[in-house]
Write a structure and sequence with these properties.
Oligomer: single chain
Strand content: under 5%
Number of domains: 1
Order of helices and strands: HHHHHHH
Number of helices: 7
Distance between the termini: 55 Å
Number of strands: 0
Largest sheet: none
């Protein structure tokens, strides 16, 4: 199944998120694989929840800067759990695979979007 076909299936099954959120997640996975190749790590292989959420955060900050929360909100992606919902929608559509350790609960335990996307742009506190 192609990525676009998988997204169509995912959107029919669960229309909570905009198509762009799926496209962005795919970009994040491509960035992750590129980083792994550059670091001479395992080229393929499984991406952990922690690694995916960190790369999602870094890529969103790089692409959107202080507008990251606004853009993600426009796509209705408000929390780490939403990233997990998108991942599992692509798993259900047979585009991505998962291991026994992969759970939506792991995404629920991810960082607060408010914190990771706002903190870098807050003024420094005087001591």
């Amino acid at each position: 199944m192609t990525f676009n076909e998988a997204v169509e299936v995912a959107l029919v099954q669960d229309s909570r998120y905009e198509r762009e959120a799926y496209v962005f997640l795919r970009e994040v996975l491509e960035v992750t694989m590129k980083r792994r190749r550059k670091a001479k790590k395992e080229e393929g292989g499984h991406v952990s929840t922690t690694e995916l959420l960190e790369d999602f955060r870094l890529h969103a900050l790089k692409e959107f800067g202080p507008m990251a929360l606004t853009v993600l909100s426009y796509w209705r992606v408000y929390a780490s759990e939403d990233v997990g919902n998108i991942v599992f929608a692509l798993v259900d559509a047979k585009f991505l695979t998962k291991t026994e350790e992969d759970t939506l609960e792991a995404f629920r335990e991810g960082p607060s979007f408010e914190e990771v996307f706002s903190q870098p742009f807050r003024p420094l506190q005087k001591k």
